[in-house]
Structure formats: C-alpha cells, structure tokens
Design brief:
35% helix, three-stranded antiparallel sheet, 3 helices
Length: 93
C-alpha cells in the first residue's frame, strides 16, 4: 500500500479539533467549530495515540501489543490517512 505522507513523521491531533469522551453518546467524538464527528472504538483508539510523540509504526506496534494481535498496519494506515485528509491530525517532524 502506498501512502501520501512520510510514515516516520510523528502524528499529532490538530489544534483546531478536540478528541474527547462524550458521556451522553457513550463514545469518543471529535469536536470542531462546525460540529462533531462520532468515532467507533477502533478509530478512537488510533486517534488517542496521535499525541505528537508517536509515528505511524509506533501506533501500530502499541495497538498490536494492546490487543494482542498482528497485521493491523493497513487498517491503521487507512484511518490515519483519512484523519489527515479530514484535518483531524497533522504530521510533525
């Protein structure tokens, strides 16, 4: 799978968006001036790790260890690319 960003860059949540637990929805959401995006559990787990300290591969390793599985790279990459396209996260050098 080809990717449109350097996978060695750290991933950070956009300062224009906020990831938070929404008690009334019983799920994580992304809040931004125009509205809110509800997240499924896998998306929330990925985005919670986009804190500016981890690269894509570090996110993959951490989630594969947490859930005691392997082969998550492509699914995580797809979510990260979508989050980058939507402006929810950004890359840091």
């Amino acid at each position: 799978m080809t990717t449109s960003f350097d996978q060695n860059l750290r991933l950070a949540f956009s300062p224009l968006h906020r990831l938070q637990w929404e008690e009334s929805q019983q799920k994580h959401v992304i809040l931004y001036p125009e509205g809110m995006v509800e997240l499924n559990v896998p998306a929330a787990e990925i985005l919670k790790l986009c804190d500016g300290t981890r690269t894509l591969n570090q996110v993959v390793i951490e989630l594969e260890q947490k859930f005691e599985t392997s082969g998550l790279h492509d699914d995580i990459l797809e979510m990260v690319e979508s989050a980058l396209e939507n402006g929810w996260i950004r890359t840091l050098s």
